[in-house]
Each structure stands twice: as structure tokens, then as C-alpha cells.
Amino acid sequence: MRLSKLSFGVFISNLLFIFAVNAADKNTVPNTNKESVFDMHMHYKWSQKEVTSPKQAVQYLSKHNISHAVVIGKPAENALLIKKLAPEKVIAIFSPYRDSQDWYRWQRNEQVLIDARKALASGEYQGVGELHIIGGGFARKLESATVLNGLMKMVHEFDVPIIEFSQPDYMLAICERYPKSKIIWAHAGAVLKPDQIDQVMSKCRNVWSGMAARDPWRYVGNQHTDEAGKLLPEWKALMIKYADRFVVGSDTVWPVDQLDGWSEPDTGWEQLGRFWGFHRAWLAQLPEDVAQKIKYDNAMKLFKMNL
Ligand SMILES: [Zn+2]
Question: Residue 297 carries which DSSP code?
Fold first, then answer.
């Protein structure tokens, strides 16, 4: 059940969205559950800042009852602009991506290690990511991946999570090599099926699976719900099995077919209600205690916040 390099090569865009077509009208799920949630995966890129000010971003969080938000800035300090306005809500993650090319260049840039250490030591950032570690010639062999290995040790040293996107074989190599480093597996590996995710999670207790962007508009080819929004049984079983290690995020990127279009503003924050409307609907189909962990408690523990 290994994912081929070819199929993974589809995902070389910044946020790795697949088959995103006719998205705006499809599968709109009403937001029926207004309980507060912890959003584990938000971006605040400069192309988003053009249309959503830091103040508006904080207003969106309140409007959609998002009590806590992990924000990945591009450049990294963008996240601090929002954090400054709502320090009790916002957790800033250090991202080494500064432009539209860094997602594949970061592994060869040793300056990343210097910048990440400075960022974590400042106390302003509580994690590192989102990092793309993908095949097709971009992923360095783990033995020679100086930057990745350095970051894995660094997040353990600072005891903060790292958000990584990677195919299962590479993810397994990383999580087994660094069992004390907490890894949030972005998009739960994206194209993977539950049994493939299970393979990694059963071997590595230091891996949390993130369901960010896994919604009907961005994962048309590999959803965890059916067309009516019903959680598929194999996904439900997986989430119950690993109830302590699933987290959810919105991944504020829009429109879906834009990928990383630097010429157009990104209106992802305006879509928060849509994203969380979908997530809240499938979360409500899980046993209550499991849903509570996945939408809130697990993230609170990961970031050492008081429950
Ligand atoms: Zn993302």
C-alpha cells in the first residue's frame, strides 16, 4: 500500500490541493455546531494580508468561535501581527518560507537552522512548520538532510511540535529516528487512506494527524466523508482508535485552484465559516468524548495550554 512517487508528485504545489474544481457551490454544509474549537492549521501569507488585516483575522476567529489558532506566517513574522492583537488565542509557528519557492528550497538552506533557533529562543513561536518533505527529487536522503535533522533535534530541545507534510515512507523514517520529537502530520498525509495512516501512527506515538484542508473543496479525490457529509466508517474507526492523536485545522487558503498564486490575493480567512462548518459536521458524528479531544483537547495538550 505504499504511495508511489508518481502519485505523490502531484502534490508539489504549496498547499497540495487536489482536483479542486467547481468548489464554491459543492457540498456546502451548514454550520450547525457552534462550540468552540482549536484551529490547528492557519496561514497568514502576505497575499492574505492584502485582503484580511490582522484585526479582521482576529474578528474572524471570534465570529466562528475559534478559541485558539495555530498561525503559520509567510514570512514568519506575519503570524506575530495577529498574535499581538490576541495573544491568548494565537500560537505562532515559525515558518522558514519567505517566498513562493522556499517550499522546495528550504532543505538546502542551512540559514533555516539559525533562524529557527532564534525564533524559538525568542519565545514568540511555539513550533516549526509547515514543511514539505516530498519525493520527486526534492526530499533529501534523511542521512544527508542536515536542515531537517537539525530541526528535528531542535524541536525536541525546545519541546515544541513540528508540522510536516510527507509521504508515509519518509514520515516513518523521520518519526522512528526522532521518537521524542512531536510531529504534526499535515493533512494526515494528504492522499492517504486510513490503513496507510494507521501504519505510521501505530509505529510512531510521536505523530499527530492533522485534518486541515481535508474538506470537500480541496480533497475531492480522497475525502473522509461521503457526499452527504457522513463520516466514512474506516475513518471513524481510525479516529476512535487514535482519539488522542488527531487534530483539525481550516488551512485558510482560497480560492482552491489558486495554489500559491502570488499575483492574486488569497481570501482564505473569509472562508473560515465554510471550512469549520464542514469540520464541525463530521466531528459531531463521533462519540462526544472523541470529538472533544480532536477538536480541542489534543491541541491544548500539544501546546501545553491549560485545559
Ligand atoms: Zn497548510
Answer: I
Residue with cell 485558510: 252
Task: Give the rounded distance of the alpha carbon of 246 from its chain centre.
Answer: 11
Expressed in angstroms and rounded, the spacing between residue 131 Cα and the centre of ligand 1 is 9
d(CA 42, ligand 1 centre) in Å: 7
Q: Which of 44, 172, 32 is nearest to 97 (CA)?
A: 44
Single-letter code of the amino acid located at 40: M
Tell me the CA–centroid distance for residue 255 and ligand 1, in Å.
14
For residue 40, give the CATH number of its domain.
3.20.20.140
CA nearest to 269, candidates 259, 254, 279: 254
Local structure of residue 294 (DSSP, 8 states): I
Comparing CA positions, the residue from 220, 230, 231, 272 lying closest to residue 250 is 272
Question: Does any domain span residue 25?
Answer: no
Check: CB of residue 76 under 8 Å from CB of residue 99: no
Q: Is residue 253 part of a domain?
A: yes
17 found inside a domain? no
Range of the domain at 173: 35-302
Residue 9 lies in a domain: no
| Distance of CA 133 from the midpoint of ligand 1 (Å) | 13
Residues, beta carbon < 5 Å, ion ligand 1: 130, 251
Report how far ligand 1's centroid is from the alpha carbon of 257 (Å): 14
Low-confidence ranges of the chain (pLDDT < 50): 1-32
Taking the centre of ligand 1 as the mean of its atom positions, its distance from the CA of residue 130, in whole angstroms, is 6
Q: Indicate the pairing of strand 66-74 with strand 183-185.
A: unpaired
Query: Could you tell me the distance, in angstroms and rounded to a whole number, from the CA of residue 172 to the centre of ligand 1?
Result: 20
Q: What is the pLDDT of residues 266-282, one digit of tens each?
A: 888 998 999 999 999 99
Q: What integer pLDDT is reported at residue 249 of this predicted model?
A: 95
